Amino acid sequence: MPIHLDIVTPEKKTFSAPVESVYLPGADGEMGVLPMHAGLVTALKPGVLRYTENGVESELAIGSGFAEIGQSVVKVLTDSALGEDQIDEEQTEAAIKRAEERLAGIDHGMDPDEVAYLENLISRQAAALKFKRRNNPSM
């Protein structure tokens, strides 16, 4: 009995298909999901989402979000989901640098929402960069 995996970002539905297993970067650590898993909702942190489809394991770098897990379905709502070929190392490094520079120039009156946005951006981009470099050690 497969699990139906849906991965949705603000831009589009990134993935939707039956899979054998899913591994998520949960807020409290990696979480494995197999068919007939107990239902729950969990926060996700930026990291690598892995799934097995037709015996082949695939990975995506995802941002923060939530996962709703049921016995036969996993719905992932995340701010980004990128395959290795979608990650440009130079652009990612530049985005991290810009966000870090903005955070470094923060005065105490800065909007807390902007601080949270910048911190999330850095975390998400750093996870994507780590994912890209892990799969391409020569970079």
CATH architecture type of the largest domain: Sandwich
Helicity range: 25-40%
Write the H/E string, N to C. EEEEEEEEEEHH
Distance between the termini: 40 Å
**Helix-and-strand structural type:** alpha+beta
Corresponding CATH superfamily of the largest domain: F0F1 ATP synthase delta/epsilon subunit, N-terminal
Biggest sheet details: 5 strands, mixed
Placed side by side, the strands forming the largest sheet appear as 2-1-9-8-5
CATH class of the largest domain: Mainly Beta
Low-confidence stretches: none
The strand count comes to 10
Overall pLDDT: 90
CATH fold-level name of the largest domain: ATP Synthase, domain 1
In DSSP terms, counting alpha (H) and pi (I) runs of 4 or more, how many helices? 2
Condensed summary:
With 139 residues, this protein is of the alpha+beta class. The chain has helices at residues 89-104, 112-135; strands at 3-8, 13-19, 21-26, 29-33, 40-44, 47-53, 56-62, 65-69, 73-78, 81-82.
